[in-house]
């Protein structure tokens, strides 16, 4: 009897501890990798203390997905927030030869086709992002119905990602920032701050700088203003 109670208690302790790891990473059941997940675990969550690290991981995965499964334009849209441009060819002059007109029409058609494809890809990427928002995040987005509808009409991927980032970093006021800072403190100064197996020094450096960027977005600059130009002086 006592052995059964002890075993039950031990199991509950392990299950409870499993939800929050010492390095700030998450062990929620919904976060476990699904081998059949086409989007490689991309998800945007709200209302959890680890929502910022999850956001960072998902943005990296989203950029990788856009670059490998879609195209370079979609990669730049996610990683650099750059919209592609499609300049129209210069119109032929007065009384152009037939071959000049034909060439102009072909170039114009090619650019219009590229622009149509780009807009189709943006619409697809917009829906992917919305699909990967967990219910709590989706509820928060849909609560801003007027703004969200405009983003949907324009398939504004950058605008949608900005809205998600704003919710992840700043929603909930001071209390939310305190909870996020607790999680980030574990991530920056706990075991999560060590180089991972098979992680290059370059990748580790990028990940650490990403974490610093998040802390500064919530807390403010970590480097005192008097030291801002130290590197330039050196």
Helix content: 55-70%
Secondary-structure-based class equals mainly alpha
Topology pattern, helix = H, strand = E: HHHHHHHHHH
Report the count of strand segments.
Answer: 0
Beta-strand content bin: under 5%
Number of helices: 10
How would the global form be characterised?
A: elongated
Low-confidence stretches: 1-26
Largest sheet: none
Q: For the CA atoms, what is the radius of gyration?
A: 24 Å
Would you give an account of this structure?
By secondary structure, the protein is mostly helical. It has 10 helices and no strands. α8 runs antiparallel to α9 (201-219). The radius of gyration is 24 Å and the shape is elongated.
Question: What's the helix and strand layout?
Answer:
Blueprint lengths: L1 H16 L33 H20 L1 H8 L18 H34 L3 H9 L1 H10 L2 H14 L2 H17 L11 H19 L10 H4 L1
Helix pairs in contact: 2-3, 8-9
Please summarize what this structure is:
The protein is 65% helix and 0% strand. The chain is mostly helical and 234 residues long. The longest helix is centred in the middle third of the chain and has 34 residues, at 98-131.
Question: Could you list some keywords that capture this structure?
Answer:
elongated; 234 residues; mainly alpha
